[in-house]
Write a structure and sequence with these properties.
Chain lengths: 258, 258, 258, 258
Amino acid sequence: MKKRIADGDNALLYLNPRRTYLVRIESGKSLHTHKGFVPYDSIIGKEYGTRTTSNLGVEFVALRPSLKDFIFKTQRRTQILYPKDIALIVMFSGIGPGSKVVEAGTGAGALTTALAHYVKPTGRVYSYEIREEFIKTALKNLEKASIARLVEVKNEDIMRGIAETNVDAVILDLATPWLVVPHAYSALRGSGAIVSFSPTIDQIVKTVEALRESGFVDIETIETLLRGMQVERGKTRPETLMTGHTGYITFARKSLRE
Amino acid sequence: MKKRIADGDNALLYLNPRRTYLVRIESGKSLHTHKGFVPYDSIIGKEYGTRTTSNLGVEFVALRPSLKDFIFKTQRRTQILYPKDIALIVMFSGIGPGSKVVEAGTGAGALTTALAHYVKPTGRVYSYEIREEFIKTALKNLEKASIARLVEVKNEDIMRGIAETNVDAVILDLATPWLVVPHAYSALRGSGAIVSFSPTIDQIVKTVEALRESGFVDIETIETLLRGMQVERGKTRPETLMTGHTGYITFARKSLRE
Amino acid sequence: MKKRIADGDNALLYLNPRRTYLVRIESGKSLHTHKGFVPYDSIIGKEYGTRTTSNLGVEFVALRPSLKDFIFKTQRRTQILYPKDIALIVMFSGIGPGSKVVEAGTGAGALTTALAHYVKPTGRVYSYEIREEFIKTALKNLEKASIARLVEVKNEDIMRGIAETNVDAVILDLATPWLVVPHAYSALRGSGAIVSFSPTIDQIVKTVEALRESGFVDIETIETLLRGMQVERGKTRPETLMTGHTGYITFARKSLRE
Amino acid sequence: MKKRIADGDNALLYLNPRRTYLVRIESGKSLHTHKGFVPYDSIIGKEYGTRTTSNLGVEFVALRPSLKDFIFKTQRRTQILYPKDIALIVMFSGIGPGSKVVEAGTGAGALTTALAHYVKPTGRVYSYEIREEFIKTALKNLEKASIARLVEVKNEDIMRGIAETNVDAVILDLATPWLVVPHAYSALRGSGAIVSFSPTIDQIVKTVEALRESGFVDIETIETLLRGMQVERGKTRPETLMTGHTGYITFARKSLRE
């Protein structure tokens, strides 16, 4: 993996845990912040991890952006799929390098980015999205994360069917996942996984019922709570603010009908 | 990906959510359960996902084992690293296909299995373990998951140093992670990640202090709670039993000293 | 409050946090445990809080039973109303010394005991229970907690109506609370509180709808999670075992129809 | 209990779950809100629970303030003792009508209000507070809740000792509770309860150690998480916003030294 920062690369300029800047390094330009500006020439040619200072003398660290950074920076306020949920969706879907994955909807591409990251170098993600206005944003975010070549964003309605077959996993983050369950069954290879993310109880009841009727097994629904800790000798405690709910995750695997 | 079950393959024989059997298929042999025996010849040559019945007429589904299955079946009662934690450790470490990872300790190889799965096909995991009795078990579990070729299990004490350099991530699941922090700093490439899993508050305080002193940034400690849902129309509710604590996860990234 | 333990009094013999014995002290008799027997005469005439030893030399502390002890000892395996829930039910119901409270069902009397404790000395609890087999147990438990005189246990079906009027609070722990909502409205004084405890989502949806239709305001549904801590210098951590769900608590207050 | 609203009474004017106004009713005056003004004369002489409308035609309900309302309205931004914690503190302390309780510090009187409510009509609360600026506020809040006669607010430092003896419970919400443990031991009757609320791990470790050294038994530390539910048919789900941490509650009971 390349160690030195070059003109045109991405970098995460880290000021503190609450203030990070995901930028494209361009020679002759600068990042402008409330703590002064940071000329990109001061980090070009340096190793990732290098420290630099703004014109006001404040220190920044130029980190290499990781998957987590691309996901967080992709998130929009209206989205509720957090890295904690993405991590579990990826693991429970069973995907990995080389997997063939169908996803809907694309949204701003946060989950798409994670799926593409993990199916590298030979896998492929087919991402369905009916809302045209999202597709441009998603493509831009996938470009930025350098994984656009692994993804086919399709401006099609997954409720009408899935064109792909012999798929390893179908990942759903949409309002009526239960309507997609029969299509997912057709698209999946035997033993393939379906994973659905939904904020309401009604959605999970309908989805689990559809899964049971369609020949899926190993059906499970969970939710996770993530709590940050303030760690300081003599004052350690959980953080006061916490997200109480993002959504429920439902998993299942396809069994073949007789 | 191969679709048909052959002699010598692994399969997960699924009876119900609480009863699954991770087996190696051998022609002429059978799985013996309290619900009767299942002759492997009845599934050899079939697609993964196929249904079969025991001699007592009870149905089993022959699933292809996924990462989650290998992890769950690797777990020992004394271990407390759950798939929910493994999923977050993997995502926050930023690793992916091609990554170079150092891990300690190996234990029975649950986390090692996940790390190796995600660095396929060209990455590598160096796993330190001082307890010889664990190494044999770990190697057997890695063989079973068909990822042993990606892992080098080292019967060495990581407290004495890390031989590898330019490492993408160091993952720690041991009693005194803070003692490894300086070695991790030396082993990591600039901007590389360290992730530590610990059950007690004292461990996270000492580890976070060591990280701050050693030049790491973006330090964060979290815990997650996972709760299952019983989903049934008119009776949906969270499950009564829940694991209240597995451990805290601490993340950080290496900044270069001036 | 009486400080000395007399023949006929209750005492909680405390061995360790997991082993406590709620007993009636009788001169000439003993408590028999796996740690030996404790003759009651060794504590009669002593202050509550006194230590004594069994014939095997193991120390017990003779505590005065508190409300919490009566509740815990009343609980049956099939019940899911925990002290954490009882505490919130009591507080959110707004009851206190002198309140007039209707409850259903009585069950083994755990919640009844708490309600009676807090309405002392001049309040009253009317507790409906259709299952005769529970009533005897409940009365015995109320006797033991010395609060039976404050409670009227009624072997009647609350679904058919509530005889009491001008009630301060109606507390429901039964399978179909929404069917009682109109009766509760009639029984309550203006601004009086209704509190319902239910384990499933379906129950809370139906109950909240009934409350909205019946003229209740300030409707709120919550759940609580309680986690124990293992506190020991250098090893402090949350406990591994935890109850993931007991039930949801719904509160509301009566507004008068025009 | 008085049912009609009179000049000089308190009322909680309820607009919606997020907007309630705790006011003193005065003939000839009005409540001014962003939804118009509500003349108090429109509710004087009516039953609690009555509906009225502002000059802009918006409906308000005139509820009788309950303990919960007094606590919520007493809370200041800097305080972290929530009704959920107050409910558990009250229940685990074992107090009830007639109890003699010592508390420190008073703060704005939220917990004091609850303690006084439950020891009515013959109990007494002794509340220590060294910060003079809080005492005036606390007294005002106790007056408003009509329980000031049950409380003695003492502008004294509880670290120097507790003057009261034969106390049923000592309740601590201060920065260094472990320093008060020996004084609490002296003040409590045999078998009496101590309850301490603290936000940090360090505080609970020191407090539990002090309790063990001072002759307390039945020592337990817990935390609770409260999550609200959005209840609506077809859309029911947990609320997104949640408080992740208020504090830990530690309980214990006094055993007598030999």
